[in-house]
Amino acid sequence: MAEQLVHASVETGVATITLDSPTNRNALSATLVGQLAAALESARDDEQVRAVKLTHTGGTFCAGADLGEALKRGLSPEQATAEGTSAMSALMRTILTLPKPVLVVVDGHVRAGGFGILGAADIVLAGPASTFALTEVRLGLAPAMISVVLLPKMSARSAGRYFLTGEMFDQRAAERIGLITVAADSAEELAARTDSILDGIRKASPQGLAASKSLTTADILTDYDTRAAARAEQSAGLFASVEAREGMTAFFAKRKPSWDVSGE
User: Fold this and answer.
1) CA distance 230 to 227
2) How far is Cα 7 from Cα 17, in angstroms, rounded to an integer?
3) What is the largest CA-CA distance in the chain?
4) What does the pLDDT look like over 178-230, one tens digit per residue?
5) Where in the sequence is the domain holding 105, given as residue range(s)?
6) Of 46, 56, 121, 164, whose Cβ has the fewest other Cβ atoms within 10 Å?
7) Residue 172's domain is classified under what CATH number?
8) Rounded Cα gap, residues 139 and 203, in angstroms
């Protein structure tokens, strides 16, 4: 029997879904993604649920794809990459098309595919322990698949900066650039701001929520599958490249890749 990595509960019209795999930083393994998708589908079909709150245990909200788990199942690196990219595309689509608001509440690190979840969500709140970094560029890669939902949300100047530098930023910067909705300076403020938003949603009709959400996601969903397929192809090509192999090897060896000419 598969370990339970995602927990869900419903109270006062809100389905709380918690990523609970802190030992591997809530990485998107096949098991976690499957359980998360099932929890989202259950919330979609439950007439008592007005909104979804997606949160996490541990110091990391999500570290992206769990390629190591896929390799242990016997997949080749190329197959593992393709599986992870496909799962990310489907997960983002599920969040975007869910006819109920999806709130993400983060108080930890966000990396790689974790950005895809944030970008697809309707509302994102982040606490003081949150950090964000799009480090793909430092590995010979690019945030290809997640760009489908990030570019419509982030300001153009911020995407130009953080896509290209890989530098880390905090919740205040994330709020300024449009990546998140609310930046909180304490756990207490994070909880209070979350409750306030959920109380507002509880006052809305299910029909009104579904119709209003569809207005906010229409542009992203236009030609979504075509654009996601193109980004998946780009991602596969990058992962198969010589530079990506050097980047990943250097990362795991905790050394600079050959192209790093920084003084750090």
Assistant:
1) 5
2) 6
3) 57
4) 999 999 999 999 999 999 999 999 999 999 999 999 999 999 999 999 999 99
5) 6-185
6) 164
7) 3.90.226.10
8) 46
